[in-house]
Structures are given as C-alpha cells and as structure tokens.
Design a protein that fits this description.
Helix content: 25-40%
Structural class: alpha/beta
Oligomer: single chain
Strand order of the largest sheet: 2-1-3-6-7
CATH architecture of the largest domain: 3-Layer(aba) Sandwich
CATH class of the largest domain: Alpha Beta
Low-confidence stretches: none
CATH superfamily of the largest domain: Response regulator
Shape: elongated
Number of helices: 8
Largest sheet: 5 strands, parallel
Strand content: 25-35%
C-alpha cells in the first residue's frame, strides 16, 4: 500500500510513518509533505497513491486547498486537532478522521475502514471532497477550537477555552492556561488572534485576554483600563484608551 503523509510537524509525521509501518510492514511511505505548495507539486507529478494521511492546518494554508488545485482521486484520512463536534460536518460525507494525539489502535481502525471501503470510494470522492472542504471552510471562519502545543517531547492539545491569556514576552508568544501552565507557541500574536475567536479580546499590542479570565477593571492613567484577573499574574495588563469602549462592550456580552 502506497501512502503519502501531509503534515508540517516533523515529529508527528515521523511518528505516524513509523506507526503505520508497524501496523503493516508492507506499507510504503511515498512522501512526507509539510506544505500545501509541496503537496500540489507532488500530486501534479505523482498523482497515484493508495491513501493520504493529512493534517488540516499546514504551515502555508489549509490542506483542502490542495484538492482545489489538483484533481486527486485518493481517499484521505485527516489527522487533526479539530474537535469532534466540528468534524461531524464532514464525517457523514465518508471521509475518515482521527484526532491528535492519535494512537496505534485508532490508526489500525482507520486502515481497516479504508480497506473495507476502498473499492467503493473512488466514484464518490469528488463529491466527498467538495462537501468536506465546504464544511471545514465554514467552520474555520468561526474559530479554531484547539491548539497543539509542543512541550519537551510531547504535543499537547489545549482548547482555547482552557487558555486565560495569550501574550508576548521577550519576543516570544506565550499562552497561560486555566491550569496555571505557561507554554511557548510558534505563532505570532496576530495569528493567535485570528484563531482564538470571539471569547478573546486584543487589549493592546502584547495581550489577548479571555473573557472568563477578567474579574474586574479599574480606571488607570491616560484613560486606560487596568484589568484584575481571576488568577494571580505578575504583570499589569492595560486596555489601551483607543479600545476601552469596545472592550467594555465585549466584556458585557
């Protein structure tokens, strides 16, 4: 069986590749592709493989952009950090998915499902891809619900609902969770703002604040607001005067 893995996290891609070969030693990994651009180039040259394992969010876009650019008649199993609720929209369309962090058992089940359906899949793949991409694009416009965080040798899924603060410190982007854990993330604050959704507010150039983290506010100098959090935090966080009225309106929602 010839398989392509589309994944921009090298650790995950190598782990997936190794686990698949442990399940079926006859599996051939044709390519590990970290981006939309490289995947499009690959499938323009090598269009025929048996199965694709693909992440949804890649370093240069979303994987469904690949299927818009190149005609692919190969089943896809998505390996993703999106929550199960979001994925129900396209699960019904016959495209399989497994949630990160995945296990060997889940991979075995997915491969068995693929084997049982592979002879009946090809005719309906175009319709399935179209329905899948439409569902994911609609969901993406709302919010990404889960963030994958690298910590030591682990990848930890953290829901945005479990994040109190997202902020910049010493030119690095951090998240501070409801479990009072602090993690570095590779994204810029602008990128995190686009992912976080309406539960977060960009109070200034350095801080994104979760509504549930705010206990109260006080007036500060120069018509700014000082935020008092529901937890101890050793830095003063101010709402810029240009954003105070919008912040109060957002907080009252």
């Amino acid at each position: 069986m010839k398989i392509v893995i589309i994944e921009d996290e090298l650790l995950i891609a190598n782990d997936l590749s190794q686990t698949l070969r442990e399940i079926h030693p006859e599996i051939e990994i044709q390519a590990l592709l970290p981006s939309v651009e490289l995947a499009v180039q690959f499938f323009q040259t090598f269009p025929t493989v048996d199965l694709i394992f693909s992440d949804i969010e890649l370093e240069d876009g979303f994987s469904f952009e690949i299927f818009k650019s190149v005609k692919i008649n190969t089943p896809v199993i998505f390996c993703t950090a999106y929550d199960a609720y979001a994925l129900e929209a396209f699960k019904a369309n016959g495209v399989e998915y497994i949630l990160k962090p995945f296990s060997k058992t889940l991979l075995e089940k997915s491969l068995k499902k693929f084997e049982s359906l592979r002879h009946s899949l090809n005719e309906s793949l175009s319709r399935q891809y179209k329905a899948t991409t439409e569902a994911l694009e609609a969901y993406q416009k709302k919010t990404v619900s889960t963030l994958m965080v690298r910590y030591r040798n682990q990848l930890i899924p953290i829901s945005f609902s479990k994040i109190f603060l997202i902020y910049i410190e010493n030119d690095l982007t951090y998240i501070y969770t409801t479990q009072h854990q602090k993690y570095v993330v590779p994204n810029t604050l602008d990128e995190m703002e686009s992912k976080a959704g309406e539960s977060f507010f960009r109070v200034n150039r350095q801080f994104l604040v979760n509504r549930n983290s705010v206990r109260e506010t006080h007036h500060a100098l120069y018509r700014k607001l000082s935020i008092v959090f529901t937890f101890d935090f050793n830095r003063e966080v101010l709402v810029s005067k240009e954003k105070t009225s919008k912040f109060i309106s957002w907080l009252s929602q």
